[in-house]
Each structure stands twice: as structure tokens, then as C-alpha cells.
TrEMBL record:
Keyword Transcription regulation in annotation: no
InterPro entries reported for this sequence: E3_ubiq-ligase_TRIM/RNF, Znf-RING_euk, Znf_B-box, Znf_RING, Znf_RING/FYVE/PHD, Znf_RING_CS
Domain RING-type: 33-73
Lineage: Eukaryota, Metazoa, Chordata, Craniata, Vertebrata
A single MF term (Gene Ontology): zinc ion binding
Keyword annotations of the record: Metal-binding, Zinc, Zinc-finger
Protein species of origin: Carassius auratus (Goldfish)
UniProt gene name: btr33
Protein name as it appears in the record: Tripartite motif-containing protein 47
Pfam families assigned to the protein according to its UniProt record, in alphabetical order: zf-B_box, zf-RING_UBOX
Boundaries of every B box-type domain copy: 161-201
Amino acid sequence: MVKTPLFCFLTETPFLTVMSSSTPLLSKELFQCSVCLDVFTHPVSLPCGHTFCQSCILAQWTASGSSHCPKCSTVFQETPELRENSFAREMAKQIRKQKGQRSSEYHPVASDNVLCDLCPLEKASRAVKSCLVCVASYCEVHVTSHTSRFTKHTLVQPQRMDKRICRIHERPLELYCRYDQSAVCVLCMNTEHSTHHTIPVEREWAERKTQLLKTQSDLKRMIMERWSKVEELRHSIKLNKVLVI
């Protein structure tokens, strides 16, 4: 019998406990990642049926150098396709609502404050790159291992990746909607932003940086021109004073 992600959830003891209990609250233990021990964020399922946060399972594979299931120890000969677990995603969202938790919008912080997600917490090194696919940040040592295994992943300057998750779909905010002037995910682009002009976040950032540098240059030129006119006026005033005397 093939174990689907939903089958694995329904046959877990915590789920049966919740269904037989009179309390309407969902069990956090059932919908939490066994790697980070927190409620799922962008949950994906492996061929064996077990589910993890996408960033957690990719980080595990990068650190260990092999594609395996941390829960049942199944080793995959090739890196398997990660399938989004919409059931776990919706349940995790409900748990967050029950606790009054809300996903944050994208708000980058200084790169010096971003630590590597693979280093031990007490000895975490400063991150040098963040991966938009894994939604995780890596130090100089771990980014080398990550790059060698996942050559097609997009790396950017280090930033708080938990702030780059869409609060609606829990997907990375990889696109920028020029109509609404906000960062969106791929699912946003296919739904409420389907008729809007969207471009990659990196392209928008590059264009804005170029525009900012141009504006800065124009302001410097304007200041120099104004300063030159002020000097001319001062010189003219001095000459007038001399003529009056």
C-alpha cells in the first residue's frame, strides 16, 4: 500500500487523539516539522510519505551530503521531487490562527545580523548567502556544500528568509508586482496578481539601485551648481561693497 502524505497524517496517534477529544484545538505536535520542531512552514512530502518544512529537509540534505528521510531513514538514490503538502500547509495555518500568530511580510534586515541556519545555535557563523529556494541562509562553509549539490538554486545576499515568505501561500516572495508595489510569490502571480505586471525581485532591486545612484548623482550635481551660484553672489556682493566705498 502506497503511503500518501494524507495517509501518514491520518494514521498518526496524535491525529486520532485530536479527533476523539472534545477540544476543538488542533494538535501542534501533529503538524510540526520533526527537524525544527516547529509548526510547518511551506511543508513538502518525500516519496516515503513523511513531511517536513522545505527549508529544513533541504538543509538536512546539504549538511549530510545525502538525500534521506530523517524520520524513517529511507535513503533515496537520487534527490527526490519535493511535493507540496497542501493539507499540512492548511492545518499549520489554522494552528497559527488559533495561537494568534501571523506570518510576517518581507522586510529585509542588515546582513550582519543574519546567521547560518545549519550551524549550531550557540556557535552560529555569520551567513554569506541566502537561498530563495531553500528559504535558508548559509555561512561560508555550508554555502559551498549547498552550491555543489543544488546548482540551480538562486542565491542572494544574506537576509532574514523567514521574512521573505508569503503570508497567504507560504511561498518565497520571488516576484515584485509593479501595480501594487509589493513583493509576491508565484501563486500570488497566478491568482490575484494574474493581470498585473510582475518581475523578479532581484531585477526590481537592480533597477531601483541604478535609479537611486542616478538620483544621487543628479543631486550632487545640483548641489554643486547651487553652491557655485552662491559663491558668485558672494563675490558680486564683495565687489559692490568695494565700489560703494
